[in-house]
Amino acid sequence: MPKKPWILRLSNELLKDVLDHIEADPERAVSIDRRAYLSVESFRPPSPPLPLQAQDIGHFRLVCTRFAELGLPHQFTRIATRFSEAGFKRLEKISSRANLVRHTKKFSYLVPNFYVEGRARIGELFRTANGELQKFDPTYFEQKAAEQRRIIRSGEDVRVLKKAMRAFRSLQHIQILRLQNEADRHLIDYLEDNQGLPIPFVDLKWAPACTHATRTLGEAANFAESPFTRFSGPMMNLQTARVMMEPIPSIVNTLSVHLTCLELHFDDGNNNLEKIRELSGLLKIVFSAAKNMQAVHLGFPSRHPLEVGFEEIFHNVCWEKLRAFGVQSWRLTAEEIISMARRHRHTLRGLRLRDVQLKEGSMWKEVLAMLRAEMEHLDWVSLRRVDYAKNFDEVWRDSMEVPDYPAGVASDSDEEDDFDAHFSLQGDITDSEDGDSFTHSNADTDQGPDANELALSPDTTASLPFCTCSRSSFPASADDLGDNGRFVTYQQRKLWEKWVVGRCPEHS
Known about the structure:
The protein is of the alpha/beta class. The chain is built from 19 helices and 13 strands. The strands form two sheets. Strands 1, 2, 4, 6, 7, 8, 9, 10, 11, 12 and 13 form an eleven-stranded mixed sheet that branches. A two-stranded antiparallel sheet has the order 3-5. Strand 8, helix 15 (310-314) and strand 9 form a beta-alpha-beta unit. Helix 1 crosses helix 4 (65-76) and helix 5 runs parallel beside helix 9 (156-167).
C-alpha cells in the first residue's frame, strides 16, 4: 500500500500554521481589556482580502476534504454583508450551508446612505449640475435608489437577516458600519455644497439608513434568539433611539440581557435635548438589563461635547464585571467621573476619558488623585485631549472641526505596535464592489479611523524626557502635577496617565 504524501501526514496544528502564514488566524482576537480591543474588533471595518491570499486559501482548500475543512475558518469566521440585492443573495447562500455558518463568530452589516423617498430625482439633478457630476453615470445612482426601494418594500432584507441570524449559532459580535464608494461620496459632497438649490431633487441621509438597519437587524436577532454578546456601532444616529423604543421595548430588553460589550459612537451630537432624553430612556433599559457587561464605550463628536449629566445617561448603574469603560466628548464635573469610577474600583482595568472637559469648579487633579489612590486593578487610563470647558470654548468656539492632535505634536495613536491586525473577508461565494469604503464615526477630526478608537490601554508614547524609576522626581501628590485649572497641555496629560498607574514615564 503506497504511503501518503508527506504533506498529508502533517498534523492539523502544523497545517494551521501554514495557513496562518498565508493569512492571520481569523479567530485570533484582542482581549476585551486590552487597549486595541475596540479599535480593532469593534470600530475597524473588515479588510477586503488581498487577491493572492484569497487565491492561496482557495487553492489550499481544493487539495482534499481535510484541507477544505481546515481552511473554512479563514473564510467564514467573519462575514460582512452589504445592503444590496447581491449582498443578501450571497448571505442567503452562506446561511444555507451548515458547514460554513458553524464557524461564523462576527457579522458586519455594511449599509449605505438611503435615498429619501420622493427626493431621488437623479436625472433632474444631473441636468442642473452644470457638469460638476459629469464624470459619473446617473444610471448608477438611479439603479441604486431603485434597488433600495425594492429591498425595503419587499422586506427581503428582514427575511434574509432572520435566516442568517438563525443559522449563525456561534455568533458573538454584531457590527453596523456605514458604507460609501467614490461615486456616493462625490454626490454627497455635491449635495452638501449646494444646499441652497431651489428644488431639492435628491436627498441622501444616513439617519434613516442607520435606523432601518438597527431595527431590522435587532428584529432578526430577537426572532432567531441569537447568541451574540457584543454590539458595535461606530456611527450611530440619535434618531435610532426613538425608533427602537417605539415598537416593543421588551425586544431591546431581551437582546440586552446577554450583552457583555457595547460600543456606540453617535455622529450627531448637537445637544438635541429631546433626542438625548430618548437615548437616555433606551440606554436605561439596556444598561439595567445587561448585568454581565464587561466593556462600554459611549461617544459623541468632538466638536459637539455633550452637556447632559453623566447619570442622566448611565442611571447610576453598577456592573459587577466591568473591565473597560470609556466616554468621549462630554462636559462633566470631577465628582461625576469619580462616582462612576468608584462604583467599579474593584474590577475596572481600563478607563478612557477622551475629549472630556471639566466644568467650572472642578479640577483634573481631583480625578487623578482618586484614580491613583482607590482604583485597585487599573492598568491604564487614557486622557487624550482632556481639557477644561472654558478653555475649549475660547480656543475652538469659531472652529467647525476639532483637530486630531495639537499643531506641532505628533499624533498619539491608540494602535498597539505588537498586535498585527489583519482580518479578511473571504469565501467560496464572493460579492465584491471595487471602490467601497467604510465610513467611521465623527470622533476627533470627524474623519479617518483614529476617530473611533477606544483603545483599551493608555495612548501614551514610548518616552517622556526623564526617568523616574527611583521615584526621586516622580510627583509625590496630585498637587505636584501642575494642574492649573485652566487648560491641559499635551505633556501634562502624558505624565498624568503614567502617574495614575504609578509607572515611570520613560521605561514603563
